[in-house]
Batch of 3 targets.
Target 1
Amino acid sequence: MTPVLSGNWSYPTKIWHGPGTMTRLAEACGQAGIARPVLVTDSGLRESGMIIRAMQLFELADLKPVLFSDVQGNPTGANVENGLAAYRAGNCDGVVAVGGGSALDIGKCVAFMRAQTRPIWDFEDVGDWWTRANAEGIAPIVAIPTTAGTGSEVGRAAVVTDQGSREKKIIFHPLMLPKVVISDPELSVGLPPKLTAWTGMDALAHCLEAYCAPGFHPMADGIAVEGVRLIADHLPTAVLDGADIEARSRMLAAASMGAAAFQKGLGAVHSISHPVGALYDTHHGLTNGVVLPYVLLFNRPAIEERMAYLAVALGLPGGDFDAMLEWLLAFRSNLHVPHSLADLGVEEARADELAEKALRDPSTGGNPVPMTVADFRRVILAAIRGDLGLGG
């Protein structure tokens, strides 16, 4: 049977999914109310065929775009400020963000900050800080992901590094959710195998942490379980054959599903990955993939039953926590994800600093086992050393 690759969804926002949906760019801008977009992307995509095509589509529709591509892999507050300056200089009225999570996050922050007078750090995802924002004037966003990882295209938050404190901070507001998402698997065909694997591990971490987060949210749980299944079935194929449109399509869907699911919460995987990325400039998805089994082992007393259900859903022999852990270790090894944080250059001497920053991370509240600085230090040292016994 020929697989169905396309569909239109409205959860949690309007999503046009399928090969060739990029051609609907002007229509998406019209539905979002954008006539003068700033196209936000990263420097690596600036001269790519997809960006050239996007500019042509704008021209054919008589839209007046501004191109901004000063976006780092781990984006910073300075990237937001520069994007906002480009938005204002071009008298823009909306954002089209094209790229991986970094470009999407900066695009969303530019749209959000164009209405604010306070510093961006005043809107960190802490308590009800989002209510400080001036909601009037937040610009509409069209999001076009080119990687299957962060799911930022369906999220209401963005991760930005505060260069002053060298911390990754989550900026949140409900109106940061894009109005329209164009999810075209053809745009991810050129992604190298290594980045395909790393971004896929990010999507897997989102699904697993959302599924393990405490609280009652059966919709998020169901989405997370199906997201894990899609990743298990299709990420290896996408890595081995980057031109496989079905695998690319399913991975884009799984990435969006992970981000939709983590409205329930994340956990210590992200709490650790954020400071590691801020201090060592590591790839976020890769870091998540390294840290994931150590956090699952620490959380085992609280998640053993949930992992058993997931193992059964994946059809794993044994159908228990150990089956899931064995699958995960083999899965990431086959994708050439390193076993330890030491392989990413992380030093034991900074374990205390990382632990303190991890405890302050907003993701920590969603961990199924409450964490202390000592707990984080234990898990971080285990991840640096590659010790699945967690030091005892």
Note: The chain has a mean pLDDT of 95.
Target 2
Amino acid sequence: MKTYKVGVIGATGMVGQRFLSLLESHPWFEVEALAASERSAGKKYADVVSGARWSMEGPVPAALKDMVVMDATKDAEKIAGMVDFVFCAIDLEKDKTRALEERYAKLECPVISNNSATRYMDDVPMLIPEINAHHSEIIKTQRERLGTKRGFIAVKSNCSIQSYVPALHPLMKFGVKDVLTCTYQAISGAGKNFETWPEMVDNVIPYIGGEEEKSEREPMKIWGTIQDGKIVNADLPRITSQCLRVPVLDGHMAAVFVEFEKKPSLSEIKKLWADFQGEAQKLNLPSAPKRFLHYFEEDNRPQSKLDRMLENGMAVSLGRLREDSRYDIKFVCLSHNTIRGAAGGAVLMAELLCAQGYMD
């Protein structure tokens, strides 16, 4: 596989920092450009994220410390000329984010987005590589709309669905009809840690703006079909969701209840989870977990502290599968929200698109 030069737009925020940590030793991708808002432009990266602003476990990557941060808007043409594609995690209003991402795409620079601004556009693929890798076919239609040869936007789905949608996907053959899910979401999902959000210590907030709508709507696009140049959402399953912010640094957990058309046995479910492989595993992509879905037999697993870093934070942990008195089954699941649910999922998506030839 060739080496690709990449840029990170929104490099100073928590997800941008996670991108750089993951890309530090990536076998395919080399960071060539860092960009952020006008406030950070013209400064060395290490100076911008100094002290408490650096949120990652390890230090700032040595190769990036002295790299000068560029202006994501004013320097767009320059950045697009320096790289093969960009990762975008910039924090702007949705209309401004969409305009910026489309600008890069029209400059023939593909955009791998962590933002929600284009998630519901019917010609923008929203990819979980193990589940709907074939949705990349819609890029041809999007390029026709944008008038580009190389440029396009592909977007990662919301972090809150990254635990339960992978768990449900192998079970769709049994006709998943109704799903109730309650997510317990870490504070890093809001770009915070306990130093910057002390109000979250010993606290639970039963509301995350827009999160329940995303949790119910986005899976339907993931499971949708391409028809007449559009991604058409699936009709089933019917999903209802409630999302809570909990005092955990990293790792989104979900409690899931499922009703089937044809109820499988618990042993059938466990075997499907154990055997499941998606396109990311079949292609042996660098960031893909060897085993995507891990089931724990212990009653007290998965746990955020113990299991969020499973397979470098890219696997999904499952547990407590049992029959339910109202629904057919219930279980819990866990994924790392800033790795699998954000930067890591986007890196894996970029690897998939490179393997499929969309970056060439």
Note: The chain is about 25% helix and 20% strand.
Target 3
Amino acid sequence: MSQHKKEKKISLPKFFIGLTLVIIVLMWTIPTFGILVTSFRDSTDIYGSGWWTVLPHKDMVKTDEFELPADTDPNSSITIEGTTASFDEWREGIYVSADRQLRWYGNKRSRKIEAFEEKWIGFGANLTLANYRDVLSAGNVTYEDAQGNTISRQGSNFGDAVLNSLAVTIPATIIPILIAAFAAYAFAWMEFPGRRPMFIMIVALLVVPLQIALIPILRDFTNWGLYGTFVSMWLAHTSFGLPLAIYLLYNYISTLPRDIFESAYLDGATPFVTFVRLVLPLSIPALAAFSIFQFLWVWNDYLVALIFLGDRNRVVTSALAAMVGEKGQDWHLLTSGAFLSMILPLAVFFGLQRFFVRGLMAGSIKG
């Protein structure tokens, strides 16, 4: 009997832990799924209903449309199919029969009436790829707003922003990894003067906010003619990411068995050959963990890109910020741009996640 009660006491906390995890996962995934669905919806559908309406449900479906005579006065009572009502009432929609509703579409000048009937709608109705095409395009974008007005605007040219972000992020991830791997190997297994003070200085740089270095570095880049170039971004992100990279890789490389290094030295391997043939292959979990950190940080960076690139070569974050200012009401474009900016970081994380925990635990257990 006591054993049965003990099992209940143990299972109850596990139930609440599992429930909490499910709630947290839903809080993260539901808004993300909403952004994904909205990015595929037509602009008129976005203004008229929520994203959850793409799920199977019963709703009013447009079956017909027609225009009223040109002499119709929208400022007085309007009679349609035997029903008389004001413009505002027709605008809201009126049932002229048990299963037929009529709505005035647009403003008073449109005189367009839409007929709706209640029907079942399957999953993914009216989804389109036009939003992504318009976001990636640099030409004119035309769509209708909630009032039925035709809007024409310049495209966001998000495709160039994605390519610019790749041109910044890939080198800004690879360069600090290579430099930090060499440095971590030297600090872990090589003896040289000033080794400990230099390592302490590198670790101390972890607590220095990068904002205090932006203006001095910007002045130097301007004097060297590097402002607005990808080289300035590579150098900036490399310098800002090196302290964490060296510390993270040092914790892992220092835990590698000493025997393999002694065997390599006895076989006549130089330190460089030992690093390339042994250290790098054995350090893949730590390298992958830092790659995730660095890639996500550089890809999602806005401040450094704004200061060192400006508007010369817009990256994804700068392009999204510009879209919020220029197209703040165009939800179909903003959600498409937001999801485009999420695809590659998610792919990188899920592709390297099996190394993530191993890399984070590097050096935590010795012996």
Note: Residues 363-367 have pLDDT under 50 and may be disordered.
